Every structure is written in C-alpha cells, then in structure tokens.
Structure prediction request, 395 residues.
Amino acid sequence: MKTERADTLNAKAKDIAEELTKIRRQIHRTPELGFGEKVTARVICDKLKALGIEFRSGVGKTGVVGLIKGCGDGKTVCLRADMDALPVQEENEVPYASQKKGIMHACGHDAHVACLLGAANLLAPLRDQFQGNIKLVFQPAEEIDQGARAVLSDGGFESPRPDTIFGLHVNPELPVGSIGLREGPLMAAIDTIRISMKGKGGHGAMPHKCIDAVVAASALVMNLQTAVSREVDPIQPTVISIGTFHGGQAENTIASQADLTGTVRTLDPKMRQSLPDIIERICQNTAASFGAKVSLDYQQLTPLLVNSPEMVDKVAEASTACLGAKSLVEAPISMVGDDFAFYLKEVPGAYFYLGARNVNEVHALHSSCFDIDESALPLGAAILAYTALLMLEIS
Prediction:
C-alpha cells in the first residue's frame, strides 16, 4: 500500500512538474525582500484559491497560511516554505533571470514556494482520505531572521495548532534525487554584533595628538578571534566573523569613530550564553589599551535548529518510498542558520535538504550565479506531501 501511494504521488508530481517550473520561474523573475513579498503572496493566494484551499493572507505582514481540512478530527501537520529573496544582483543569463536590479532569489526560496504549492496540489484531492489537518505556511523574511517570529506572533501557528512541522531547503551540493537528513542539531544559532569604537580625531600628520579609532578597531577585529581560538572548547564549533568595517572620512585624517558589524554562530547553548560577556570584555580591554571608548550591541537572533529523531525518521520513510533508500544522505552540521528553528522550539519536526545540483555549474547559496536543476521541484513536492500523509497515518 505504501509503495502504491508513493508511486501515485510521484506520478502526479511528474504531471505537474512543468507547472511547478513555471511557478518557480515566475517568482524568480520578481524577487522581493523580507516583508515586501506582495507579488509572491498574490501568486500563492491565487494557486491556493484555485485548489479550493482556505487561506489567510497578511500573516506576519506578508505571509500566507493555508489549511487543508481532512474528513474528521486528528493531528495537524504543518509544512513550511520561505518566500523572500536577497539583496544580490543576479549574473545568470537565463530567460527567467531577476527583473529587479539588486534583488535575486539566490537562496532557492522561489523553489521552496513551488515545492510547497506542489505538495498542496497533491494533497488537496486527498482531503476525504485523511483525518486531521495539513497547514501550509508560506513565510516571509527568513533572510533577515524575523519572519518565523512574525508568523508566530500573528497567530499563524494557531487555529489549529500544529502537532509537528516539516520544511526543506534546496542544496546545490547534492545531486537531484538525494535527500539530506540529520537527527539533532543541523544548523547553528545566529547572533549579531554591532560595535562602535570611539577615539579622538585629528590630522593624519599628528597621530600623537589623537586616539585612532581605526587602529583600535583593527586591533579589536584580530583580538576577537582569540575568543574562538583561546576561550572556546576546541570541540565546540564557534564562529565570530566581522562583516563590515566603516571608519574615517579622509585619507589625511585620523578617524574619531569606527563602526563594525559581525555575526556569531554557535552549536552549544551554554557557549552561546557565555559569548556576550567574553566579547564585551575583549572589546573593553582592547579599547582601553588605546585610550578609546567602545560600545557593544549584542543581539541573539535565531536559535539552534534541532531536528526530532522521530520526525527525521518520517522524512526518511517518505524519501525511501518515493526515491528509494539510496536517496538518503547524512547531512553535515552547518554553521549557517534558518529561522525554521523557532518553529522547532514550539513543536517537534524536521528540516531536510533537497538535492538540486545544477548540471551546468555548481554555485553556492547566496551566490549571484546560484541556480538549481528544476527537476528537483516535483521530488520536493512529493516528499513533503507523503511525509504529511505518513504523519496522519495515511500511507
């Protein structure tokens, strides 16, 4: 029976493959940044309406939440896709390239939307065959780590509240037909730091009369690396990266201020809690050694993404049924993050990788040349749909 159901879903997914490609390319042409996904939301609403699926728009500002009601009471399974693009200028020369200057779907969220709409297409005709509900969350603003919290605070997880949640992310490193899975921690917790180093400006020819904020901030960039190399357990992966450095206004002037921003990534909750104090101490001591003043703004953004072993097993079962046992690949722990982690703090679930390696040339996520093999889209739709059915004990 399981093989029959999986075969049927695969066949139907193949039937809508061309439609999923059209959806993905339509969204790819009109990318939108976080909380600005109005065109994308309209596409989603139109598709859900055509499928006879009830939905609520404007969730978490620009998100859409659909609900497929079964034929009776039961569990509620949630499937999630993120919608937003990145401030990246696309360099791909393809017919579906971004039509918006400086904005691009460089992380595959257009594909995620297409996969979830595909799953909705597969599941809607089956509503009289399962008890319970399947909630479809099309989430805004993942790239700025605010969308999941916005959906949660706006009641997107209520009426009915899910018992579990699943989501996928395209992976340009894995070939099509592969599913990357991992129990437990999968993605790092993400924090951000903003540092302002203040000194005393003056003429570049008279540094002895100044306190050079650029020099002090430069020393701080180097000293912050000792937090990882000398204060963190070597077997606990931790990253502190300074991404921006702004200081000075003229080549012959000593800067009075330098501003830095950076990211902090951890896989251990205790280490995450200790790092603000460590970084604050390094900032203060470095500034003091130059006679400067410093302020640190440390913000915790996204928690550690932790997959439930039981839910990973369900994805593995669905993947094996749809693609065969050889499709399963153990995903490595990554220091990237995803605000899907907020949902996993609410209910057990699993986040997995969908192999989508471009046959022409592989480009990493967030690359201006990022693209996918679109034959992965119906596979993602089928895996999401079959996982939901397994959770509702329909196989």
Q: What stands out?
A: The chain is about 35% helix and 25% strand. The CA atoms of residues 7 and 322 lie 7 Å apart.
